[in-house]
Design a protein that fits this description.
about 1000 residues; mainly alpha; Serine Threonine Protein Phosphatase 5, Tetratricopeptide repeat; 47 helices; three-stranded antiparallel β-sheet
């Protein structure tokens, strides 16, 4: 080492981070117990995030396998999957290629070879026609690798500098954390610069999304306090600093650990800014070292030895001589493959200090060196690094050519967002390169077409619409009708997600362009897309003949994918909910599935499976629907995409299981699927179904939480009857169960005015039933127990519901049973005589029994008993109905329904099969329930026992605030002014002593 070179020392001890290390240690302890958690660590540049996680990784070494990968800054696009490639490389170094291969299946090894070619021949797009599946499969295989690795012991995954993460990395990170509960014993740690997260930074929404996950913690690493900074100074100097020195350094550094270290390097006047501070430290190094650092800074924060040698054009001895002072001075860190700036701020400051000509010259040298020898950079990175350097060198011709090549490579690596960025760069540079088309072998519209196709995979609908519009401006529809039509079709399908009318207009215009026989295959494709969108818009009269024409053309041309698409649309138009014709529908879906399989189109194949279970559920074939969905999950597993398709298939499996009364099985399916990542609409249905189960079991707090998540997920999304209407039904039933009948009426009226119920009989009938039940609760309650105006509102609501029901179609036995239930509730609202209401309840109970749905059957039996007893009819019939309802409710675990049944039995002095006469439920004069929910009744019991709100909260494991809300509801429903009056009324009615009121 040269004499006189100042060295910046790093503190030998980690100061002021004990609490944060303890949080990470807790995560590791959880991993050792088989639990999986994630910790997101933010902090400003230089505050010590990397030091914290490296210290933790060293501590964890004896207890877990720790793998570390960092995101790399590479222009605006970043480097696709860079941290995960780093994780894989570290794993290969530790286990060897064979060891890693043993953790993967054959297909899994080929998928991950896209990121790390050392693993073998990567999977090609010939293996799957649908690119979106390939990306999903890659994600699944990465998850599977970590899952299997964790089976051998606790696993820690550290991802550093996520503020530089490319979109593909962000997507994969979201996927892994969203599915983390699948992996037992995995701790994921992510660091990022929080001071760089401006309003539009792409990491912000990811952090917000991950922050909602229960097993994710977010930590913000603060600056050091004065005493902590003094301790750091003492550790570096190996002695206590002079008070004036400590004060000066702390004042200038403001507690930033890196600033503290840099400031201690100076003996003289201190620079004014961190950038000046960093550069001043570098300026103290020898001239040849500073020159080499300038060269290195253009290569990024980490650079390989051979690449630096090639670009610097220095001999080996000269290179090492120049590097030694930088390494000794803690500016560069050396490892087996190359060098890394000790902190990104040093690299950034050096790069920013380059002169314009120097900047372009260095980046051009990097591009030329890597182009000449791709092995100078890690495998798979050459194309995008070359594109980055030519772009930074402002050489537009080579920037365009290399961006086109990098886009192709990003596509092979399934980094679709980065592929789209590279294609956008080609479009940006196009007008600056006169012979651009000859240079890349593709015309301008072809680049647009490639980019539009990728927007389908990245979900950038607005961007796709803009690109398609720009491409269409360059085409002459008269000379290139087929190409124009397919662009219109692509734009139309994208537009339909936002404005169906505008999207359908594009599809119709496309159809006009492909009328001749020369364009038959293109016409079939456009027709199939148009039929699908018209079906989604419920315009089945137009959709059906269009789908038939698409199918005929596809059969003539041998276009299997279009055949499958048209068959799927026709099957759902003709047979959805038609119990008499469903065998023909299943046959058509099987044909669609076979065509999709032959075409290699997994997307269409899974749609056929999903539609099969949907069709079966719609006609009440619950067991077969559940089995079809289960088989779909198995098929998805075979394709390596179980978690990608799990949400929608889980909905189709859990819904029929719940209908059959197999609630525990349904809950297991939902819990497993909620641990997977999926689109918001599918997740909303999972939470809605979980909310319905919680509500039926009487867990109102959980039902309320589930409903809130379902509503949040649907916020801002376009209306879909199968998602929005069930959530609306849950909202109505939950408000009624909580005793908030005014709110239940509001929710019912909102659904009635907001949604077109006539267009969706399958999903509208449950909403009508829930609304009628809420109205009947209001209208049958004593006047003193109603809120002002509720009776009039409920009467108006049931009138409006009656009109909707009269016009609403009934297809299949499920909708028939729902109509009978609605009619019985309507009769209850009108105070109909037993001669009218009893037969309706009997028919409803019989219909539900025939469908094998025990919960609505039990509710209908309860309604039958109530109507029978209220009309003074046959007590034996009422007793039989109550006994059957009690048995069903008890078997299901439907606590609120069982409480209702038990209460009515007690009031009527009818013994139940368990020998009781409803001893666990309250009796009262007038309204037997006093309008109280089960939870409110529990709270009233504890109020009557003299307990405070806080004591009740502890007893029932709820918050004191929730108790206060329940007490307020109880006072309002009982018409009492105080807790004491409510307790007195409970005692007078002898609600809790097991004997009837006097």
């Amino acid at each position: 080492m040269l004499s006189g070179v100042s060295t910046c020392q790093v503190s030998p001890v980690l100061v002021g981070r004990a609490d944060y290390l303890a949080r990470l240690d807790e995560g590791l302890a959880d991993a050792r117990l088989g639990e999986s958690t994630a910790v997101l660590i933010g902090g400003e540049a230089g505050v010590g995030k990397s030091r914290l996680v490296s210290e933790f990784a060293a501590r964890a070494a004896g207890h877990a396998r720790a793998l570390t990968g960092g995101c790399l800054e590479l222009g605006a696009s970043g480097l696709p999957f860079a941290p995960f490639t780093g994780l894989l490389r570290q794993l290969v170094r530790e286990l060897g290629l064979q060891g890693v291969a043993e953790l993967l299946s054959g297909p899994g090894r080929r998928e991950l070879a896209r990121l790390l070619p050392e693993l073998g021949e990567p999977a090609s797009h010939d293996d799957e026609a649908y690119q979106g599946e390939a990306r999903a499969r890659l994600f699944e295989q990465m998850l599977t690798l970590f899952e299997r690795l964790a089976e051998t012991g606790p696993l820690v995954l550290i991802i550093e500098d996520a503020h530089w993460a490319d979109r593909s990395t962000r997507d994969l990170l979201t996927y892994l954390i969203g599915n983390q509960q699948v992996m037992r014993g995995v701790l994921i740690v992510v660091t990022f610069r929080s001071d760089e997260l401006h309003r539009g930074h792409p990491l912000r929404p990811l952090l917000a999304e991950l922050g909602r996950i229960g097993w994710v913690q977010r930590l913000e690493l603060p600056r050091l306090t004065r005493s902590e900074a003094t301790a750091q100074i003492a550790a570096i100097l190996t002695r206590d600093p002079e008070p004036a020195q400590a004060d000066n350094v702390f004042r200038r550094s403001e507690g930033n650990p890196m600033f503290v270290e840099q400031l201690l390097c100076f003996d003289g006047e201190l620079p004014e800014s961190l950038r000046d501070l960093v550069l001043a430290n570098v300026q103290r190094l020898p001239d040849e070292t500073r020159e080499l650092l300038r060269v290195a800074s253009a290569g990024g924060c980490r650079i390989g030895h051979q690449l630096l040698a090639a670009v610097s054009q220095a001999g080996e001895d000269d290179l090492l001589r120049a590097l030694r002072p930088a390494v000794s001075g803690n500016v560069l860190l050396a490892d087996e493959g190359g060098y890394q700036f000790r902190h990104a701020l040093i690299c950034e400051a050096m790069h920013d200090d380059l002169l314009p000509g120097e900047h372009s010259r260095l980046h051009a040298r990097y591009a030329e060196a890597i182009s000449a020898d791709a092995e100078l950079v890690p495998t798979g990175r050459a194309a995008i690094e070359v594109a980055h350097h030519w772009y930074s060198a402002h050489d537009v011709t080579w920037a365009l050519i290399s961006a086109w090549e990098a886009a192709a490579q990003a596509g092979e690596a399934l980094a679709y967002a980065e592929q789209l960025d590279m294609l956008s760069r080609v479009l940006e540079l196009w007008d600056s390169v006169p012979d651009a088309a000859a240079r890349i072998g593709a015309d301008h519209v072809r680049v647009f077409e490639e980019a539009i196709a990728i927007t389908h995979l990245t979900g950038d609908d607005d961007r796709g619409i803009g690109l398609a519009t720009a491409a269409l401006r360059e085409l002459d529809a008269e000379t290139q009708p087929a190409r124009t039509a397919l662009l219109l079709e692509q734009r139309g399908l994208l537009r339909c997600m936002q404005d169906p009318e505008v999207g359908v207009a594009d599809l119709r215009r496309a159809l006009e362009l492909v009328t001749g026989g020369a364009y038959e295959q293109e016409r079939g494709r456009v027709l199939a897309g148009l039929a699908y969108m018209l079906k989604k818009a419920a315009d089945v009269e137009q959709a059906e003949p269009i789908a038939e024409e698409a199918l005929a053309i596809a059969r003539r041309t041998g276009d299997l994918a279009t055949q499958a698409s048209a068959l799927l649309t026709l099957a759902m138009i003709r047979y959805d909910g038609d119990a008499g014709a469903y065998p023909a529908g299943l046959e058509m879906l099987a044909e669609a599935r076979a065509a999709a399989s032959q075409a290699g189109d997994y997307h269409l194949m899974m749609n056929a499976i999903i539609n099969e279970s949907h069709l079966l559920e719609g006609i009440g074939e619950h067991a077969r629907a559940a089995e079809a969905a289960r088989a779909g999950l198995a098929e998805s597993q075979r394709y390596g995409l179980i978690r990608t398709s799990e949400a929608v298939l889980a909905v189709n499996q859990a819904e029929p299981l719940a209908a059959l009364g197999r609630w525990d099985e349904a809950s297991k399916v939902l819990v497993a699927a909620l641990g997977s990542s999926s689109v918001a609409m599918s997740r909303s249905s999972l939470w809605q179904l979980a909310g319905n189960l919680a509500l039926a079991r009487g867990d109102l707090d959980r039902a309320h939480d589930n409903e809130a998540v379902a509503v949040e997920l649907l916020s801002g999304l376009p209306y879909r009857d199968q998602h929005h209407l069930p959530v609306a039904g849950l909202q109505i039933e939950l408000r009624a169960a909580e005793g908030q009948l005014s709110a239940a009426l509001d929710a019912a009226q909102d659904a009635l005015s907001r949604y077109d119920l006539q267009a969706s009989p399958r999903y509208a009938w449950p909403v009508l039933v829930a609304s009628a039940a809420a109205a009947s609760e209001v209208l049958t309650r004593p006047a003193a127990a109603r809120a002002d105006g509720d009776a009039g509102r409920a009467a108006a609501l049931i009138g409006a519901l009656r009109g909707e029901a009269a016009a609403l179609e009934v297809t299949g036995p499920v909708q028939a049973a729902l109509r009978l239930t609605f009619q019985a509730l309507d009769a209850r609202c009108q105070g109909a005589e037993a001669a009218v209401s009893v037969p309706l309840w009997q028919s409803a109970a019989t219909a539900w029994e025939a469908l094998g749905e025990p919960y609505p059957q039990a509710r209908a039996l309860f309604g039958l008993a109530e109507a029978t007893l209220g009309g003074g009819a046959d007590r034996d019939e009422a007793a039989s109905a109550l006994q059957r309802a009690a048995g069903l409710a008890r078997g299901l675990g439907a606590a609120p329904l069982l409480a209702d049944v038990t209460l009515l039995a007690r009031r009527a002095r009818i013994p139940l099969d368990d020998g009781s006469a409803g001893g666990a439920a309250p009796a009262a004069d007038g309204d037997p329930r006093l309008g109280l929910t089960q939870r409110e009744f529990e709270v009233l019991r504890l109020v009557a026992a003299g307990m405070s709100n806080s004591a009740i909260a502890g007893e029932l494991f709820i918050s004191a605030k929730t108790v206060s809300v329940h007490v307020s509801n109880i006072l309002g429903k009982l018409g009492t002014a105080s807790r004491g009056e409510a307790a007195a009324l409970a005692h007078r009615l002898r609600l809790f002593d097991g004997s009837p009121a006097a």
